[in-house]
Write a structure and sequence with these properties.
Layout (H helix, E strand, L loop, with lengths): L4 H20 L9 H8 L3 H8 L16 H16 L1 H5 L3 H26 L17 H26 L9 H14 L13 H23 L1 E7 L9 E7 L6 H11 L14 H9 L5 H23 L1 H10 L3 E2 L6 H26 L1 H6 L7 H28 L8
Helix pairs in contact: 1-7, 3-10, 4-6, 6-7, 8-16, 9-16, 10-12, 10-16, 12-14, 13-14
GO biological process, one term: protein transport
Keywords: Membrane, Transmembrane, Transmembrane helix
Pfam families: SecY
Length: about 400
Amino acid sequence: MHRYREFLTSLGWTALILAVFVTGQTIPLPNVDLTTAEAALKHVTFLRLFGKVTGSDFSNQTLFSVGMGPFMSAMIIWQAVQAIGDEAISNLSPRQVSFGKYGITLLLAIAQSFQLVYLTRGSLQTFYLAGTDIDITFVGTMLILIAGALFVAWLANMNAAIGIGSSVALIIPGIVRGIPNNLIHGFGDAETVTLKINATTLTVAIVVGAIFLLFSVITNAAELRLPIERPMLDREHSNSYLPIKVLTSAGMPFMFSSSLFMLPRYFVNQTVGPTTPAQHFITTWFSYRTPQGVLMYTIVLLLLNYAFGYINLQPTRQAKSLKESDDYLLGTYPGDATEAAIMQHFNRLTFISSIITLIIGVGPLLVGLFWPVAANYSLYLGSLMILAGMTIGVADQIHGLITKNRYQIFD
């Protein structure tokens, strides 16, 4: 039992944190008409797609409706800043780094809370500052949502420190809940064709999902290992390598591509439809049902795949780290030559991962041009890819907690 004590303790903390998170998503805001709010958000597709993959719940107006969205976006923005300005970021103290991350989280929480309250403003019940006739309905509702978002960020940080699965543990339940809905309703816009569930379609979905999950596990685990020479270690322990994942961006492109792609449609009234040339352009080039839209979505996926891959790998930082520790890639000079070599391998692997990404995300859309319901599989398979990547990371952490006490060095 001693061997599993740390694992069971971490598991218990994660269970408690998830229980608090799920409970918060069931506590309704005190001054919102839920039926009216749901109707107001019905056609804001990009917001619902964003919520499905970030632990947010925009379909129900609750304390944690904003959820993990600001925190996740802030971590990605911080990684991007770190990749671009590594020299400046490395000189910051831990306190300054924490201030920067949570400062971005706060700003995004304010922006997303404002957006959500603005979209549902017609469902808000008026309330006043105690003892006055000052209407604080809008600001008060925003403050509740902001407080909820910051509390969720704290929960995620706590789980990363003492739980299992880092901060992504809070996202996994929402993704699992959303997978059946993604398959049935697809992207959820006005053009979506609902998949009717019967014995045949359910069997096909399960078989395709099972095969794809196996494929996802294999591709997420695949990596290129560049041999590293470590002169400062004795020869017996000097053999090492720099791993570069084939899917360097993991499932990140699928997490944000749909909501980003659907964002321009927010400027078109979904009830009336396009009424100007600009709106007609948007509905043509940002639709999953037109060749132009599929081409645009392909571009979005490719750009996100490259960007997230670069942010996750950070070639400049890798080369700098190797040089500072007096290590080097075999046959490559330290410094700029090492960075160029890493970038060369990254570009090659990105080409492979781009093909995989397009097969998953764009393949069903191409079929959907002729058989509309097939387009739903784009979001379905993308969600499975996200889930597989996150689950592998959690499984690796669990394996580490269970096996680390087998080594005498840890006793």
